[in-house]
Design goal:
disordered C terminus; 65% helix; transmembrane; globular; mainly alpha
């Protein structure tokens, strides 16, 4: 117990405490800080102190920041628009790049397993070669300023350019692309994946009998020279663009050009051994894996949503992108359905290969007019494409153009159809495209737009056939473009690459439905040149 004397001393001590100390002791903030300092673990004390410091620094930075001005707001808005447009174009370009996987799977599945390694190798290496050729020379020939027929500069992606400036503010040598406000690198990448697609189309038509080295050389020449020259006429501000020719995403620029080059390659190579009997009858040589082929078709369908909508090369308010996605999907769907029905009626069965090619035919056909036609028009364009492709496959077979995957029927025939369809179904700038073609023949615009579409189709086709033929003839004379009969029989996987695609599986020894009586008996040892 406390004595009376000690109790008095404690009372006097309390009375000596200053009023300020009493306030501090009773202040809840001080008590909280004291609690933090004495009661919390060191880790918690450190976290709280760091958080407080960051908050104080941010507060100071916000207070020290200059007030927004009209110029700064405008610059920020411009930067955001450029960033958004660039991101959209790059993502669309990635989708188009992924189409390489689709072509790879489609072609491999449609062909025999003994050639699968060769096909996979071609489709993988071709984009690497396309990158080199388009960067070194192709992009400059296609998009730099020059004559109405070809560009004169911009090789190795060099030259004056102040992208993303547009219209009159643009200063540089790539004025054909001054309508899109994205950096030059984004412009190049998006156009590169299109160029690679054109070269990949050729691979399918010449599959199972072309020498690997010849295909690589031809791909370099196509992407570096032929494709850019005709592309300059249309997308590079050349004479066809000045005449009013329109091809929004490449039915002619990409697909028909690749198709024409593929047609000439298949013609110069000749058919595969056993494809045609001595009496002229065509023998089926079925593909080895329709599951992989179907996967490839689905990848291509997905990639087309970058191919067509991405060709806006800007976001805008998004309405044009959405419209193009709808027309693209609708045409592909109706193409697949129309080909299914047509094959069922004509061939007696709903052939899966025809369903796949019908889908691709519809997508190719709508590629040129996708921004200028309505959804019902896209459905009709796609359906006609699906019907055409079934008969086109039979036609080329009848004239002994051996195309293992139907690349010529899909890309050439429907590239032409889609380009002409623009002149029939165009509704001008109704859906937000600017610039836009005149109204099509079926919508009161007369024959004018259809006429220029026909002139462009014939001109691009004629030039591509000429240049491609020169390339194929030169390669045939210098290197020989076809493997020997023995190499073809054993398969290009072994003869060209020294490996198997399906190691450990039984090797194929037949020629589809062909028999020993369907082809000459002296093929062994024969060299095709």
């Amino acid at each position: 117990m406390l004595s009376r004397t000690n109790l008095k001393k404690k009372t006097r001590n309390r009375q000596r405490i200053s009023p300020n100390r009493t306030f501090i002791t009773r202040n809840p903030v001080v008590r909280s800080l004291k609690f933090i300092a004495t009661q919390l673990a060191p880790t918690w004390r450190t976290c709280i102190l760091l958080t407080s410091a960051i908050f104080l620094l941010w507060s100071y930075a916000a207070a020290a920041q200059q007030p927004a001005t009209l110029d700064s707001v405008a610059q920020t808005t411009t930067d955001l628009r450029v960033g958004l447009d660039t991101m959209w174009v790059m993502v669309a370009g990635f989708l188009v790049f992924f189409m390489n996987a689709g072509f790879c799977m489609l072609e491999a599945g449609f062909c025999r397993e003994k050639n699968s390694v060769n096909i996979l190798s071609k489709n993988l290496v071709v984009f690497a070669l396309s990158t080199v050729a388009f960067w070194a020379i192709g992009f400059g020939l296609m998009f730099s300023d020059g004559s109405p027929f070809v560009g004169f500069g911009g090789f190795f992606l060099t030259g004056v350019d102040n992208s993303p400036a547009t219209a009159d503010a643009y200063q540089g040598i790539f004025s054909a692309l001054n309508w899109t406000g994205i950096p030059l690198g984004a412009k190049f990448f998006f156009q590169l994946v299109f160029a690679g697609t054109a070269a990949t189309i050729v691979s399918g038509a010449v599959a199972e009998r072309i020498k690997f080295v010849d295909f690589l050389i031809f791909s370099l020449l196509l992407v570096g020279i032929s494709y850019p020259i005709t592309g300059h006429w249309i997308w590079g501000g050349g004479w066809l663009a000045a005449a009013g020719f329109y091809d929004f995403a490449g039915s002619t620029v990409v697909h028909a050009v690749g198709g024409w080059a593929a047609l000439m390659g298949a013609a110069f190579l000749g058919p595969r051994i056993g494809k045609y009997a001595t009496d002229g009858r065509s023998n089926a040589i079925p593909g080895h894996n329709m599951g992989i082929a179907t996967l490839g078709a689905l990848i291509l369908w997905l990639g087309w949503f970058g191919f067509n909508p991405g060709s806006t090369m800007g976001v805008g308010n998004g309405s044009l992108i959405a419209h193009i996605a709808l027309t693209t999907n609708t045409a592909g769907a109706f193409g697949a359905l129309a080909a299914t029905i047509t094959a069922w009626v004509v061939l007696g069965k709903p052939d899966l290969s025809m369903i796949i090619n019908g889908l691709l035919a519809g997508l190719v056909a709508v590629t040129a007019p996708c921004a200028f036609v309505s959804v019902p028009s896209a459905a009709l364009i796609g359906a006609i494409g699906g019907i055409i492709v079934v008969f086109a496959v039979g036609f080329f077979d009848s004239i002994k153009i051996d195309d293992p995957v139907g690349a010529v029927s899909v890309h050439l025939v429907n590239g032409i159809w889609g380009t002409l369809a623009l002149g029939l179904f165009s509704q001008g700038d109704l859906f937000g495209a600017d610039p836009a073609p005149a109204l099509g023949l079926l919508f009161g615009g007369g024959i004018g737009q259809l006429w220029i579409q026909l002139i462009g189709t014939l001109s691009v086709g004629g030039m591509t056939v000429l240049i491609s033929s020169i390339f194929w003839i030169a390669l045939k004379a210098i290197l020989g473009i076809r493997v020997t009969a023995e190499e073809e029989m054993v398969g290009l996987d072994i003869s060209e690459h020294g490996m198997e695609g399906y190691a450990g599986f039984a090797k194929e020894t037949t020629l589809g439905s062909a028999t020993q009586h369907d082809f000459p008996s002296d093929i062994v040892g024969k060299t095709y040149q």
